[in-house]
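User: quick one, fold this
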Amino acid sequence: MKKNVYFLMGILLVVLCGCGKTQDTSVDMQKATVAEYHEADHLADEFEIRSVKLPVKEENLGFYCVSDGKIFYVVDYSDSLQDQTGTGENVEFENKYNTQIHMYDMNQKEDQLVYQYDLDYCMSIYDLRARGNRIVWVEQPKSGGWSMKTMDIDNKTQPQSITDSMEMSSDENDAVVPTLGENKVYWYQCKKEKKHPYSLYSYDFLTQKIQCEHQDLDVESPYEGFSLVSSVGSLLEKENDVHSLIHLWNVKNAKKAQLHIDGEVSAPVSNESLSVWMKNYETDGTLYIYDWDAAEIGKIDFNPGRFFSYGIIGDNVFVNQRDQSAYGTDGLICFDVKKKEYQQIMETDQMLTIFQGDEDEIYTSVVEDGVVTIITVTMRDEKSGA
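Assistant:
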């Protein structure tokens, strides 16, 4: 039995690292056992945790992202120009109120204006992503529709259009959510008349071509982004009401694996070590984890508490716990899946949306007295081998 397990482990690692053929693996969520995690006091020391207060009011902060030690964020004055009390008057629009994209360098502690619109209204930016010297965002003009833009911040080029709502017709999407890879940007498009209505599209910055990467997918919302962690993408296909399929796709070498799951799956996130998902957004307090190295499925039970979001770095799963559970109270908790240890990294009663950054990084934000603080978590060099 052990020899067979080790053999399957070897095949899977080959698939995910770039050699071999597609591997099919099947698991039953009903057989997932509650793993025994022991509280530790050293996990936080294995990561670099940084916090930065952004030089912008909460009411003017739009979307933000973190890449390579830099925070990119949108400044949108539309709320400030409109009377929110019903007792005053709206502020007249001026050029200085045009929507802006800024970059804050966490190392240099410097803020820089990257781009500012030149319109007679506040352009709405739906999402923003960055990687290296490239940023991508989705704008929604007041005339309607949407347009995906990109810009080279090093060469200070003017924004270029990738695609828009007219070019990529969609039955449901009022906008799309981009995920930025090394040389491509990915997004979902929806055709609601299909049984599995979503398809994954990409734009290649080198060839400047759009192509459909995968069809017949299921996501919770048209505004859900393609999950991409350390070059491993997770694509969800619901085979029926009780069976799900997670497609794992290494975008660098195009090698694939498939995880067939007996059970309901939502919001899968994967890297070369772990696949993590939940059962239901609204009612479930259980997080499921498939360990590819050990070829076993386990779960973390937060009941009677719950969790709001999660992300992964290496063998570690970070969870924003809400309310009380066996792992403590509200806050950000790190679970080391291999060592079966956990530690609360940060205590807060705020709902933290955990975002995946470049490679081994997650980030989130908290707000206090109108001040927005961005928090980043990265693997320390000595552990990552850098």
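User: anything notable?
Assistant: The longest helix spans residues 2-17.
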